[in-house]
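dumping this here before i forget
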Amino acid sequence: MPRRLLRDGRIETDDWRYLNEEIAENSPLILSFDQWQADRDRWVARAGRLGVILRPEHQIERLAPELARLALVAAEFPNPSEGRGHTQGRLLRERFGFTGELRAVGHIRRDQVFLLARCGFNSFELPDSELEGASIAFTTFSAGYQPSNDAGLPVKLRRR
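structure:
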């Protein structure tokens, strides 16, 4: 069964594949940061879009020179108390100007979607049972008090 996710406020079938999944020749491919680092030249030479998953301990500065080659960067949230992915998302969008798909993976739940979108995330891997509820999260608020990067919100918030 194909994986579904929340992308740009809509529930869609995921066209990306992970290295451990069945991969067609030019399928968009998501690699771990370690896989990317270990065999970078092989992946650059491969046809098709590439993405990389950052774990919380990975430093974005090490990936920054490669961002132009990547169509997707994912931040992994390995447990409910891990928040470094929020910072990674903001840095990717604001400091490094990443304009591709920014995905949240791992322990993500629908109550986190709105805040993650305000950090620049536009794609979310959630349990299938939470996709419908999470899609509503984008309309929870219409205005924001604090500055943020609303790149992940389908409709931008008014500033108060």
